Amino acid sequence: MNKEAATEKNKISRRELLKLSAFAGAGIAVGASGLGTFSMFADQLFGKTQNASANEMTVPFYGAHQAGIIHPQQTYSYTASFNLLTESKSDVIKLFKKWTEMAETFSKGNSYAKGFSNDWLPPKDTGEANDLSAAHLTVTFGFGPGFFQKNGLSRYGIGHLKPKHLKSIPSMPGDDFEDGFTGGDVCIQICASIQQVAFHALRNFIKNSIGTAEVNWMQAGFLNASEGKTGRNLFGFKDGTANLSPKDKPKQNKIIWADEKEPSWMIGGTYMAVRKIRMFLEVWDRSSLKDQEDTFGRKKDSGAPFGQIHEKDPVLLNKMPVDSHVRLAKSTKQEIFRRAYSYTDGVDPKTGSINAGLFFVSFQQNPDKQFIPMLKLMSQKDKLNEYTKHVGSAMFACPGGIKKGGYVGQRLLEGTLF
Ligand SMILES: C=CC1=C(C)c2cc3[nH]c(cc4nc(cc5[nH]c(cc1n2)c(C)c5CCC(=O)O)C(CCC(=O)O)=C4C)c(C)c3C=C
Ligand SMILES: [Fe+2]
């Protein structure tokens, strides 16, 4: 089949489009029968997903799914939660149009000010990413519960389109949140292989949202891994070993992408769970190697599960302490897709200890089934709790990918497909 014919085959028919537009407009969930899974749809609608073109260091912004979810983790991340200051839907649309244009521009490694200059106005782009590459920048948007409802009332006329599982994460034993480090109406996750490129994007998103949105919280993160190796967290353990492979599409459809019971704007979308988890490094560093390994049920050096030799060997639950982190996670028989980053926030002024930890992010199809029971079990029984404290929490619904010419949230805000 030649390239055009293949592209043609991937395109959805006009009749199907109309059918879908009607679903989208009415906010009716697409049934499983006949129309197939949401993710198959997403592929049909948007063509193939993101693949970084190695030479240009760019990750396509447009695709069936948003960038920055299954893309291999870049070294740096900035994640910010915003609250909307306006009750006007057209202001929100304007903001998302602008943010979309910027996200696309930055994903290509371009300046937002390209072709624009006026000596009498502040520069349109802050400039610190000029002369730097696109650095594999990805931008991922999510909507929090407050995007749909405020004070129990529908917001922007879209309350009825709130996805099924979108709500704040219920409070857990041991939660001790930093001031303001919860929730938010909108989330933007920015990842890149150059920190300055990632920060530049966030700074310009903020600059262009003044008056319409304000930052609720933000977090910087980092993660280094050698080629082909699993990165290590700040406790020195390989973290991400059992994560599903970004190549395993059938499993992604089961674990990550929204199902057909969701409103149609969630086609190709997912839920993003966030927990900021402080890790008590000094306490950990004073504990024995045996205690450290018992905490996870894996060997520190090799990453192998207890009773096994190699990192990727199957987990033997009965060889692990009953309160070990991995045994508890596995015993739920649920899977999530983790995309966490380490963070350091200086020194705790009260104790003088290092303020650092894991900015835990996971993507999943159904947080009520996959994530919350796991978190609950861990909050009650995990040996890891001796060394950690959950200091932030949020949940967002990430819409499906964006098609060229459209903007983030368009399918939700306008009831159209793109
Ligand atoms: C609710 C979900 C999870 C939270 C919160 C969480 C926090 C957390 N995890 C580590 C370090 C490791 N986690 C590992 C495995 C693992 N963790 C979760 C879930 C949560 N972790 C899952 C589902 C799994 C996979 C279990 C499995 O199927 O085997 C590991 C082992 C290596 C790996 O597979 O990644 C480490 C190490 C920290 C430090 C932390 C909070 C600070
Ligand atoms: Fe974990």
TrEMBL record:
Lyase listed as a keyword: yes
Chief subcellular location: other
Purpose: Involved in the recovery of exogenous heme iron. Extracts iron from heme while preserving the protoporphyrin ring intact.
GO annotations of cellular component type: cell envelope; cytosol
Boundaries of every Dyp-type peroxidase N-terminal domain copy: 66-222
Domain Dyp-type peroxidase C-terminal intervals: 231-401
Name of protein: Deferrochelatase
Family to which this protein belongs: Belongs to the DyP-type peroxidase family.
One Gene Ontology biological process: iron import into cell
InterPro entries xrefs: Dimeric_a/b-barrel, Dyp_perox_C, Dyp_perox_N, Dyp_peroxidase, EfeB/EfeN, TAT_signal
Signal peptide feature range: none
Keyword terms of this UniProt record: Heme, Iron, Lyase, Membrane, Metal-binding, Oxidoreductase, Peroxidase, Signal, Transmembrane, Transmembrane helix
Compartment list: Cell envelope
